[in-house]
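Researcher: Please predict.
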Amino acid sequence: MSELSMLIYPWDVQADGADRVIDTVAGLGVDRLEIATAYHSAEVLSPRRTDRVFVRAEANTVHLPLADATFSGLSIPQSTIAKSDPELYPQLRAAADASGIGLGGWGIAFHNTRLALEAADAAILSCFGDRFTHGLCATNPASRTYARELFAGLAATGLFDRLLAESVSYLLQSHGHPHELWGARLDVLTCYLLSLCFCEFCLAAAGERGIDGEALRSAVASELHRTWNAPFPGGRTADAGQELASLLLAWPDLAAYARMRLDTVNSLVAELVAASPVPFTLSAAVWGRPAPMNWLEGVDLSASLATVDGFVLESYFPTAAEVAAEIDHTQAVAARLPQSAPLTVALTLWPTHHANRADFLGKIETVLASGVDRIALYNYGTATADTLSWVADAASLITDAASLIKGAAR
């Protein structure tokens, strides 16, 4: 079933009001909203407003009230929005219901600086013994409990007909916020090696598979030190993934460790899906993109497509060719499965990714030509007046494509 959804932040609902938001998106032909609930950090420019144009999101909080007993260990506090405007989400739900628009709850789990700092033992531990300050380890039992309780808590509000889960896998360096200074090589290969977690739980999981995790940790640290400090080669081109793929073939323990990470995330995703009372949709990797690189964060395309109720590709690329390549690869993986979750392709509403309306609509046509008829747009608040107006044209293209399919089926 075709669908046009839009992602939205609660501060935009607060600024515009639930009724106005729903009237706006309904008039553009949007079928559903996916609203952020538990979110990390952001500094957001809202170009259509003339006040509250620059929003600094209250970082690493949950923006709606959850039951007091939601969390048993790791937990995040309620934001000012949740405390001062507890009816915001129910009002949006009521307005959405009145207009026949679906409402999903979008939650971010392990990408959380507050928890990574306050509960450092649950954060990713690099080969050098440094803790990540922006991400939790997906192997750590406390992290996994937190993820289960977070999504259970969101579902328990009864406000959402679907959950959208982001960041239930391992994160990569770098974060992008705060300001980071990288003078040494940081490409796909070195970033992956630096992002591997060697905490006690990852080492124990490796040991269960016959991997000497401590020896691998030492070897990874030595390789990074070597490649960063060797006088040759200077000015080399960055690895786009080919060198890492070759290294995995030549380094069996590294490949086995990668497989262990995939299986660890797969088991958590399966638990989340099984426990969810509403359809559970999984977002692709946060930084390990495009789709063929999702495995860098432990996101297993094949297992995910076989397990979840929907899978979202954030195809935030400047060209339609890049969008097409990501979809085609994902469909190649899906073709090997007896049953696969429906795909949603997410595109931005940013002029930086689309030179003009025709460019944007060309990407919509590319998605539809692939047979994917679920499209998500990011996002309500950051769109300009011009790019927001493109949404109605996208909705028309989706409706026309659905009509053609129905006509052909008769």
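Model: The chain has one domain: 3-409.
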